[in-house]
Amino acid sequence: MCGIIGAVAESAIKPVLDGLGRLEYRGYDSSGISILSNNEIQTIKARGKLNNLKQRLSMQALEGKCCIGHTRWATHGKPNETNAHPHQCGQVSVVHNGIIENYLELKRKLVQWGHHFNSSTDSEVVPHLINHYLSQQMTQEEAIEKAITQLKGSYALGILINGSSNNLYAIKQDSPLVISQGNNGFYMASDAMALGADSAKIYYPKDNEIFQLNSHEIKLCGNSINKKIHYINNQNSAKLISKEGHNSFMEKEIFEQVDLLKRLSVNSHANKYSTINFKELKKITIIACGTSYYAASVAKTWFEKYAHILVEIDIASEYRYRSPIVTDNELAIFVSQSGETADTLAALRYAKSKKAQTLALVNVANSTIAREANFTFEIYAGPEIGVASTKAFSCQLAIFYKMAIEAAKQRELINNAELKQLIFSFAQLPYIMEKVLQRCTDMKAMAKKICKYSNVLFLGRGALTPIAQEGALKLKEISYIHAEAYAAGELKHGPIALLDEQMPVLVIAPKNNLTDKLLSNIQEVQARNAPLFIIGDKSIREYINLQEDDFFELPPMPEAILPIISVIPMQLLALYSAQILGKNVDQPRNLAKSVTVE
Ligand code: F6R
Questions:
Q1: Which of 100, 153, 372, 456 is 20 to 30 A off residue 515, Cα-Cα?
Q2: In a domain, 596, yes or no
Q3: Residue 88 Cα, ligand 1 centroid: separation in angstroms?
Q4: Are 369 and 340 in contact, with CB atoms under 8 Å apart?
Q5: Is 457 in contact with 503 (CB distance < 8 Å)?
Q6: Do 319 and 432 sit in the same domain of this protein?
Q7: How many whole angstroms from 445 Cα to the centroid of ligand 1?
Q8: Closest by alpha carbon to 283, among 259, 256, 303?
Q9: Do 333 and 291 fall into the same domain?
Q10: Which residue's CA is the closest to the ligand 1 atom numbered 5?
Q11: Is the CB of 367 under 6 A from ligand 1?
């Protein structure tokens, strides 16, 4: 993960610090900058959040036209100041996102050549290698080129060299990187979102192209720039900073879902979905990680139920290592909010190598996954800043729902009345969601009780099992309460052994054809004295004796949209539990928003 940024501009430190603020979602255990000031590289780093670095910088008047910055998510080496980037060797300073897999071997060699290392990171080998080749009278470009031929693994690098000319270099392999030309300077960063209002033109470098940013131009070393320029909307980055009156980005993003779904239900992207020939498809494989994987799990139930298509789902980190069978007429869908998740990207490349037709479902439009897939559908959730994914999940589900309807239509497996009902249900979705959000204080009361426990078991059935899993993931991510989820019928096959007064069980209990079965599972829980909490239909209360605070009522709604609605109380539960426990909701420990390492 980690976020990197660099600028060649008047007062380059400002865009770098602003950009680091926007990149903090990629890691926040330490940060640092290097700036060329008075013909010297000055490096300042700090452990912890970016504010610590800003405080240090406020104590010294540093100015310069060439600056690189980094916000870290530790892979190799503890999160401390020594391991924070940039790493420097002589007149070379480097920021790195990715993993240098052969760093031990390189380090051994460099130590033999007399180099001394300060950190326990993999990244530090890069400035040492470049410096080594510079000392052999190579030019800056030659030294960088030679150094990167030694590297195995993934990297996006920002390299500052203090030499006869002051240059910033940027280069990548299998890690995201953008290069940008603005009116007031030249920039590089891990993603377009990090760039401020000055950056209109964005270049997406190919692997191992070396870019030089100097005070006059951006130069593709060895060649002239002849690349497609993607324009980004500068407003995005400015808008990002505001929580719009909420306590956290996550809270803002949860409450934003109503408007997003209103927009999705009004905008007809149906024409786009009809570009996929569902009629001829033999199989859909959906591949993703984390929350996006749970969206895939719900989608499977819709495609199978409404369009009768065989659907396989897989976790991206497993997919390409299990020799999956890619058949003719198979559509492989890759779901990713960030569009940069390394495991999902690697799985996409694997599927493409096996000649599968690939479709990306992403939130970040110009992300690597979006650019590499054969087809791309956006989920239009807008920038998601809270590390725990919320609005991206409901928007992913909304798009999958629309795709399943289109598939059902093309395959003529659904009559007009059923089709109308599905479309009508979708139109109701934001209004029902609004009602659920209006009851948020009920969820505060439930969270107050739940967050007194160290463990929670979530139960669901059918399409609500992945929602229970998503609820457990949300709770553990931001409140650090251990939570697991099961399909309710699985309880008796093992997890029931855990039940006692200290193991609360939260059940999603709608009114549907499985209610009776679920009620039996609930009885099994109560018989073992486990504290019971229910998110469910009002009618459930007729059968189960529960205190007011232990029940969160779901309004009546069509079965098809239940998964999209019932995730809302799950998100609120996690949010309020974390708030009550005083945790950092937007930046939970050990996590980062975009997981760009394997
Ligand atoms: C959980 C969460 C993660 C991501 C996962 C995949 O709240 O955010 O589990 O869902 O890392 O990320 P994307 O969707 O960006 O590929």
A1: 456
A2: no
A3: 32
A4: yes
A5: yes
A6: yes
A7: 28
A8: 303
A9: yes
A10: 290
A11: no
Q: Are 24 and 241 in contact (CB under 8 A)?
A: no
Ligand 1 pocket, 363 CB below 6 A? no
- Number of independent structural domains in the chain: 3
135's CB contacts (< 8 A; 6+ apart) are 90
Picking from 594, 581, 569, the residue whose alpha carbon sits closest to that of residue 254 is 569
Peptide bond into 86 cis (omega under 30): yes
Whether 593 is catalytic? yes
Residues 319 and 350: beta-carbon distance below 8 Å: yes
Q: What's the CA gap between 395 and 360, in Å, rounded?
A: 14
Q: Exposure string (b/e) for 347-368, b if CB count within 10 Å is 16 or more?
A: bbbbbbeeebbbbbbbbbbbbb
Give the CA distances from residue 427 to residues 184, 431, 432, in Å, rounded to whole numbers and listed in that order: 46, 8, 10
pLDDT in tens, 154-195: 999 999 999 867 789 999 998 889 999 888 899 999 988 888
Beta bridge partners of 481: none
pLDDT (tens digit, 9 = 90+) per residue, 483-537? Answer: 999 999 999 999 999 999 999 999 999 999 889 889 999 999 999 999 999 999 9
Q: Is 497 exposed, middle or buried (0-12, 13-18, 19+ CB in 10 A)?
A: exposed
Structure tokens at 116: 């001394």
344 lines ligand 1 (CB under 6 A): yes
pLDDT tens sequence across 259-285: 999 998 877 666 678 889 999 999 999
Cα-to-centroid distance, 375 and ligand 1 (Å):
21
Domain ends where: 212, 233, 254?
233
Radius of gyration from C-alpha coordinates of the chain: 26
Domain assignment present for residue 140? The answer is yes
- Any idea of the CA torsion for 530, 531, 537, 542, to the nearest 10 degrees? 80
Torsion, Cα of 346, 476, 565, 301 (10° steps)? 40
d(CA 507, CA 356): 39
218's tokens:
């951006």
| The amino acid at 192 | A
Residue 232 has pLDDT above 80, yes or no: no
C-beta of residue 13 within 8 angstroms of C-beta of residue 35: yes
Are residues 472 and 531 part of one domain? yes
Same domain for 213 and 287: no
Within this chain, do residues 217 and 287 fall inside the same structural domain, yes or no? no
In whole angstroms, what is the distance from residue 298 CA to residue 314 CA?
A: 13
pTM equals 0.86
Identify the domain boundary among 436, 453, 486: 436
**367, part of any domain:** yes
2 carries an active-site annotation: yes
Chain centroid to Cα 304, Å, comes to 27
Comparing CA positions, the residue from 7, 2, 3, 1 lying closest to residue 160 is: 7
Which tens digit of pLDDT belongs to each residue from 72-86? 988 888 888 899 999
